[in-house]
Prior knowledge:
- It is built from 16 helices and 14 strands.
- The protein has a 5-stranded antiparallel beta sheet, with helices on both faces. A 5-stranded mixed beta sheet has the order 11-12-10-13-14, with helices on one face. A two-stranded antiparallel sheet has the order 6-9.
- By secondary structure, it is an alpha+beta fold.
- A hairpin with a 4-residue loop joins strand 13 (517-522) and strand 14 (527-531).
Amino acid sequence: MSFLWRFQKLCVILHIIIYFMEAEQNILQLYRQWAGGDPVSVTALPGAGSNRKYYRFADKDGATVVGVVGTSRDEDHAFIYLSNHFAKRRLPVPKILAVSDDELCYLQQDLGSVSLFDALKGGREAGGRYNVKEKELLIKTIRQLPNVQIRGARGLDFTQCYPQPEFDTDSVLFDLNYFKYCFLKTTDIDFNELKLEANFRMFANDLTEEKMESFLYRDFQARNIMLDAEGNPWFIDFQGGRKGPYYYDLASFLWQASAKYSHKLRRELVYEYYYSLKNYTEVPSVRHFAERLSLFVLFRTLQVLGAYGFRGYFEHKKHFIDSIPPAINNLRELLHDNNFPYPYMVEVLQKLTLLPQFAKIEQPAANRSDGYKVTDKNIYQAHPQDGPATFSKYDGRGPLVVTVYSFSYRKGIPEDPSGNGGGYVFDCRSTHNPGRYEPYKKLTGLDEPVIRFLEDDGEILTFLDSVYKLADAHVRRYIQRGFTSLMFCFGCTGGQHRSVYSAQHLGEHIHEKFGVEVKIIHREQGVHFELQAQNGN
Length: 537
């Protein structure tokens, strides 16, 4: 019996080898017919998740095309149909150049070798800390997604899609049971299968209740987006697409566990998608959109856990096993942030996130004796890559006292008696100077005529608007950290008009807004004000 099984397996392998040998000749013949001659070079390209084979053909002038050899005519037919349809809609997809009679081989436009996944490598390796350039690529991509989903669906014959024309309850239940059998049942969790199945059906009905005339990409991920020389996204591998809700692709892309997108970056990209979607179709309210999106994020998370379970636990592929903890973290956060109306399913999923093998790894606190301390009062969002934070010995000493100076640049910038080295120094000399005019020469920025001059002119108000934004953020953070001293200085030519007005107004603004003690010192005028801390500060 064992010998027969091995013989049958060997026959299958030989059949596959012979098939691809013949297919390679077929794709080469298709290229000859299309180009009118042999290629100068043929390079096998890395395979994707399917069994398709990819080759890059180059001619004597260096021009290249990609040849594809598939194993499923229906799948190839779907890609060819969709690509031709999207090209007519002028969407950024590869053009189909030639197709064999059996549709198992075809040539397509070469989009190069740089995928969005490649371009985001630095951000992933930095634990989800993406730089400005990487964020710009993500924004470009997410803004283009509604273009494919909405404009791409217009005039599309969904019966041409593979393996089914529409996202429906049966496909949802298939994926939920895939999660149940390939992941949940591999754990030690005891659950009532009938009660879980009942919640699965409720979940499937909710996911499919809104019918949409949009194209569901199905496998929208960074690996399936190519970038041209200008960093513009081009879309590939959409042959599994079908009619369905646009939320699915957004959830699939932004909650991919290995991408490690921060909450802030996800919110920004959801915002970009939502307002791009408005250009193509009528959109629901932000609240409704967010509620629907959360359902699809939960569904997509369970779906990928099923895939990770099968590929990791059953096929023993390490990459998928390593992807399970971040996916569980996504699930943990989802359950914490949302109140899903599937009580038994949520109960089982919460048990899943509490299993010891999926417990969050906490960084140990550092023991320091060099004048710094580790504190539990961390006002900054932690990043796993950075480990525990250390804090200055000045943390938590409070309350804050703010000192605001006006001064003349001729006599130098005021010294900081606190020993902190000073804070902000603002130069008022770019604004209109009332000291140039005889009526104001003997007055200061505290006098009503000078105040009227400056505010009627308006330049000083625009200047202070920017100062207030900086000062507010700085004061707020110093209060949170429990620092005791902050200094602001305003300088002008004589320390009499513009600097005095600015210092007085900033000091009063900070005292009114934050209630902290503020000392206002007009150095060249010999005038001091003390605004006492309000109750609770």
